[in-house]
Amino acid sequence: MDVTTGESRELPVSAESALCANASMSQFDGSKWYFTGGKFLEDGNTENKLVCVDMEAGTYTPLTEATGQRFFRYAAEDGTIFHYQPCKGFFEFDPETGEDLCMLSLTEEGAYEGSWAHYDSDYIYCTEVNTDGGRAVQIYDRSYALADQIEISSGLHYITATRDYVFFGSYSSEGMGMTPRAFLRKSDIGTGNLELISIDG
Predict the structure, then answer these.
(1) Is 168 within 8 Å of 180 (Cβ atoms)?
(2) Residue 82: Cβ within 10 Å count
(3) How confident is the prediction for the chain on average, in pLDDT?
């Protein structure tokens, strides 16, 4: 709806292309809303696509073919989709051309199986990376250089990053999300003094 005129406009979405948006997998970049949409197929599988809703143009556009978990974690900035593919690496996708460039290949067998990447304006946090000693968080700068790495217990998972801290937590036994258990100071990244600080309580 146009709040100045009171007029509303339906997006041109067909029943065949309509996908359910997952709010936890969405990003806003100016007037464009990107989300990973999914729907169940007759064979029991799930189809996932990256979709763009352009609020100014009033358009709804699936940008990719079926992608599985390809765009499950990504960042939309200045018309580029920055995303990570487990066991493949970091990519930059241009929605206008469909070009998807690999910026850093991560292909070590088993190490990146099931790992995740979380983006903020300063770093990319590649979590749940398998190492000889267990699991680690690898921290890359936005130019894809490895800035630091720290071991982490299997029960801790990334929650969020702020300007100064990165938080990790464990899943609640009551099924109510995650409880914060530890954090990193971003100012310690790359100094040799990075440590995981416990949160008591």
Answers:
(1) yes
(2) 21
(3) 79
Order across the sheet with 80-85: list the strands.
Answer: 74-77, 80-85, 89-93, 100-105
pTM of the predicted structure, to 2 decimals = 0.74
Q: Which of 45-49, 70-74, 85-89, 190-194 has the lowest mean pLDDT?
A: 70-74
- The residue with tokens 């464009």 is 32
Looking at residue 54, its amino acid is: D
**Strand residues in the chain grouped as ranges (E):** 20-29, 32-40, 46-54, 59-62, 74-77, 80-85, 89-93, 100-105, 116-119, 123-131, 134-141, 146-151, 157-161, 165-171, 178-185, 197-198
| Cβ pair 122, 142 in contact under 8 A | yes
Closest CA to 51 of 169, 198, 74, 154: 74
Q: Chain centroid to CA 27: how far?
A: 9
Question: What whole-number distance in Å separates Cα of residue 15 and Cα of residue 11?
Answer: 12
Edge-first strand listing for the sheet containing 157-161: 157-161, 165-171, 178-185, 197-198
List C-alpha distances in Å: 85 to 56, 126, 170.
31, 11, 24
